[in-house]
Each structure stands twice: as C-alpha cells, then as structure tokens.
Specification:
Elements (H helix, E strand, L loop, with lengths): L5 H19 L12 H13 L1 H5 L7 H14 L3 H13 L6 H4 L1 H20 L12 H19 L7 E4 L7 E5 L8 E4 L2 H8 L9 E2 L1
Helix pairs in contact: 1-5, 1-7, 2-4, 2-5, 8-9
C-alpha cells in the first residue's frame, strides 16, 4: 500500500481544487450561497494572502470588509482570461510564510478540509452528487482530522449528542458529543469526505446516512 504523507494529501486536494476551478470557469454555480466560482476563487486567494481578510470569513467586526474585498476581487475575475490567471496564481501561492513548502503538516491541517469542501462546492452545485474518488489513505487522514476537530466543526448543532461512523476506517466510530441523559445521539455514517461536507453545512449534497 502507498504511504501518504500530509504533504501528499494537501498537494492532491489542492490539485483537485485547481482542476475543478479551471474546468468550471468563472461563472459556474457553487454551493456557497450567492457565490459563483469567481467569488470562491477570490476567497481562496485572499484567504492565503491577507490574514485580516481570512479572519473576517467567520463574520464579526471584519466580516463586512471581507465580503466587500471578496466581491470586488471577484468582479475582476469575470473575464475568463483573468480567471485562468488567478487560478494559476492560487496554485502557485507559497501559503502563509511559505507554509506550503516549509511546513506541509501545518498546511495540511489548515487547508485539507477547506480545499476538499470547496472542490465539492463546485462539483456538486450542478446537481451531480456522485462522490469524487478519494484515495483510502487520504480518507483515513481526513477521518483523523474530523475526529480531532469534530466538536469544533459540529458547533452547537447537536445538543443531544453526535456520533460519527466511517465504516472501513480506524477507528470506525467517534463520539463527538456525548448524549444528554435520556436523549439519543444523532449518528452520521458515511465516507470521511462525505462526513466533512455534512459538518460544513452541505447537508443536502453529502452522501451519508442519518439515524
């Protein structure tokens, strides 16, 4: 079996995202409400080049500024040629402080799930919900990440408890939030990549079972 490092995983997910963005063009729909692919690309570039913009993605005091800068940049990418150049710019970015080459483990921790979700934001916006073929080794690393960050990803959406199941991976079950006395936890079951999509708010596009 091929051994996948964190650097291999993040490189593969970045390549998949770049290819998906190039194929879609600047005006394709995404699962991000109000965004076309050019908005998503603008977000990705600003996120890795302007820390204050990245901080505003989650809203708060910097939220309006982030939204304005993203929309302004996206407007510049409406032209297909400008869009293609921007996709290449994203592919060639060094990351924070040269993170992509100098600290691939940190790069993977920060960006693997982000890239995976945004790739599917483009792929599945057309209604085709077929899962992308993701190597089992990558799925395992995604599952490790989901188990360690599950409570943060789930937020307060499951106050009665949340259990994740990924059949075929080790360990196959992860209790993210224990159920309250007398309550039954929600169980989400599926491939790790599909669980990520669900936890990132793409419930209708994720191929999982809920019980």
């Amino acid at each position: 079996m091929t051994t996948y490092s964190a650097a291999d995983v993040i490189a593969a997910e970045r390549t998949a995202l770049v290819g998906t963005l190039n194929e879609a063009g600047p005006a394709a729909p995404t699962l991000c409400e109000g965004w076309q692919t050019r908005h998503l690309l603008a977000h990705l570039i600003l996120r890795e080049t302007q820390p204050l913009v990245a901080a505003g993605v989650m809203g708060g005091p910097l939220g309006k500024r982030t939204e304005r800068l993203t929309n302004e940049y996206a407007q510049q990418l409406a032209d297909p040629a400008s869009y293609r150049l921007a996709v290449q710019k994203f592919a060639d970015l060094p990351g924070y402080g040269g993170m992509r080459k100098r600290w691939p483990v940190a790069d993977a921790a920060m960006n693997t799930l982000e890239y995976l979700v945004h790739t599917e934001d483009v792929r599945r916006a057309t209604g085709d919900l077929s899962p992308r073929e993701v190597p089992a080794e990558t799925q395992q690393k995604i599952w490790d990440d989901v188990r360690s960050r599950g409570r943060l990803l789930a937020g307060k959406s499951y106050p009665e408890g949340l259990v994740l199941e990924a059949p075929g991976y080790s360990p196959s079950t992860a209790t993210i939030q224990g159920p309250k006395p007398g309550k039954v936890a929600t169980v989400l079951s599926g491939q790790p990549a599909e669980l990520v999509l669900y936890l990132f708010g793409r419930e209708s596009a994720a191929r999982i079972e809920v019980s």
